[in-house]
Amino acid sequence: MKHFLLFWALALTINATFAQKNQPIAETEEQKKRRFDTEWLLSEGMKYTMMEEYARADSSFRKALQANPNVAAINYELARVLVKREKLDEAAIFAQKAYEFAPENKYYGLELAEIATQQRKYTKAADLYKAIIQRDPDNAAYGLELAAVYLLDDKYEEAIKAYNEVEKNLGIDEDITHQKQRIYLRLEKVEKAIDEAQKLIDSEPGESRYVVEKAQLLMVAKRPKEAQQQLEKALILNPDEADARVMLAELYKQSGNPQAAEQQMGQMFANPNADVDVKMQALLGLLRESKDDASRQEVLTRAEALIKAHPKEVKAYAVYADLLSKLNRKADARDAYVKAARLEPAMFELWAAILQLDGELNQTDSSIAHSEQAIELFPNQGMFWYSNGAAHLMKRNHQKAVDALEEALKLSSENQNLATIIQAQLGDAYNGLGNHTKSDEAYEAALKNDPENDYVSNNYSYFLSLRKEKLERARTLASGIVTRNPNNATFLDTYAWVLYVMKDYAQARTYLEKALASGQNVSGTIVEHYGDVLFQMGEREKALEQWKKAKSMGENSPQIDKKITTGQLHEQ
Q1: Long-range contacts: 9-13, Cβ < 8 Å, 24+?
Q2: What is the pTM of this model?
């Protein structure tokens, strides 16, 4: 409707242009055709402008100008289109013409002023705004635009004057007052900023927020006693004013009165009507200042009070959980995140934190349950599918692990690090299903991305040795692991077992003895393997001793009892 009315306004302007020189004489056919052509071009230009086809609108308006170069409205519309086309210099030319043809039209002046501002011709823009304001008292609000131009031109005192003129016409306005205060602070005129704060208070004496703002400025001016008086006044007006209590607590702390500071903070956190965002900021500030577990425990007490006052505030539970995590109370932290997720299920970060803590706590059942909930909410997040698959793998639910990990891999193709981890887990899961082809493919894909991945190299080489397949590949991988980790008992055992399967018993013995000597994570499996090597080398009594030792360490391999009973080597 706006564009329709504007079109008819333009059409009337053109009619007047054609008629004004020839009022006593009827319009000729040529004049009539020229007028109709111009109106049609204007219609096309307005249509293309609305369709945001600015190049075509530009063409239509230029054709209209060829016939009627002195029509202000056409120049104005072309200037607006040129601004859209980011051709400011040319737009300024046509905007200037429109303004010269009809200086009384404030919209032409405003367009020219806006273009001048974009061109950083601030003096010209300021002159235009002043002219617009002077012509009509109703234009006083454009003093805000004038002030903005002065600010861009770093003329702060002039900006203040412009704001003052607006206030004379429109009255005290909070946004204008705050802008003036920012300018005064920039000019290091704190007292002037305080005066402005008092004007706001005088305009609305019952507004406690304005009293707090004045107190803030008094603190900047290093007038703490006066600031305290203002804050106490604000709390009389509104006992729920959280900012006032935080600031009062800081003043009491600075004056050496920690008990009074504690009282203010305690009242603020316990008050369910106090602004929760202010409490959150205060809590985070306390957390930043905490340097040890004792101070963190104090912050935790505040967080508990915050939750009690705002039992449905998700941010409160999230911060509480963060604190618990920092204090290494992982189970409590996970439970707090779960409560937060119940209040706001669609927060990705909460589920990510929950699943991370489930993993750190080795609680696979919880990880499965929580990952299923997360997947339902975020079915396209590979990380959640991975968590589900990894948990099922730990529970030896190999098919469910494969299903989840394959989905995770599809969704994580652009995250190479995560994809490598998923492929490693897929290798284990497929191996658990006995699908060795898929298992090998997954391990090889992981090693292609990360050739020195010790986890993959160890599992892959060990499983190959158990299958007695691709033994040269297994030896290459296992050799690389022990080169990188010469004292890791698990990796030494894997390499030794590959050598054992390849019947290199002497070398296998060397690496098993290194594993036993390391004293790190020596398992019954390693001891049993050592007994097998000794048996193959003819040291049967020593072999039996090692098998018995492995049994006493909790080793329950399928053949261990037969070995001990018969004193013979039994292999699958």
Answers
A1: 9/73, 10/42, 10/46, 10/71, 10/73, 10/74, 10/77, 11/39, 11/42, 13/71, 13/72, 13/73
A2: 0.69
CB 559 within 8 A of CB 529: no
Percent residues over pLDDT 90 in the chain: 76
**Residues 6 or more apart whose Cβ sits within 8 Å of residue 198:** 214
Tokens of 423: 């492929």
Amino acid identity of 330?
K
- CA distance linking residue 197 with residue 313, whole number of Å: 33
* 405 vs 389: CA distance, rounded Å: 5
Among 243-257, 379-393, 409-423, 554-568, the range scoring the smallest mean pLDDT is: 554-568
Residue at 571 is within a domain = yes
3 state SS of 552: helix
Q: 549 φ, ψ to 5°?
A: -65, -40
Distances in whole angstroms, Cα of residue 437 to Cα of each of 231, 372, 428, 464: 74, 29, 12, 11
Rounded to whole angstroms, how far apart are CA atoms 111 and 127?
13
Range in 25-39, 95-109, 516-530 the model is least confident about: 25-39
- Burial class for 267, CB neighbours closer than 10 Å (0-12, 13-18, 19+): middle
> What mean pLDDT is reported for the chain?
91
Burial 371-384 (b: 16+ CB within 10 A, else e): bebbbeebeebbbb
Q: Is the predicted pLDDT of residue 520 greater than 80, yes or no?
A: no
Q: Put residue 328 in one of left, alpha, beta given phi > 0 → left and psi -120 to 50 → alpha.
A: left
**Residues contacting residue 173 through CB under 8 Å, at least 6 positions apart:** 166, 167
Whole-angstrom distance, CA of residue 163 vs CA of residue 104:
24
Looking at the predicted structure, is the pLDDT value of residue 418 above 70? Answer: yes
**562 falls within a domain:** yes
CB neighbour class for 533 (10 Å; exposed up to 12, middle 13-18, buried from 19) = buried
Torsion sign, CA atoms 524, 529, 535, 537? negative
Within 10 angstroms of residue 227's Cβ, the number of other Cβ atoms is 23
Helix, strand, coil percentages for the chain (3-state, nearest 5): 80, 0, 20
- Domains in the chain, number: 1
Contact 502, 464 (CB under 8 A): no
Q: What is the CA radius of gyration of the chain?
A: 40
How many other C-beta atoms lie within 10 A of the C-beta of residue 523? 16
Domain span at residue 539? Answer: 523-572
Q: What is the DSSP letter of 568?
A: S
Which of 489, 476, 537 lies closest to 517 in space, CA to CA?
A: 489
Residue 545 maps to a domain? yes
31 belongs to a structural domain: no
Q: C-alpha dihedral over 300, 305, 311, 313, to 10 degrees?
A: -60
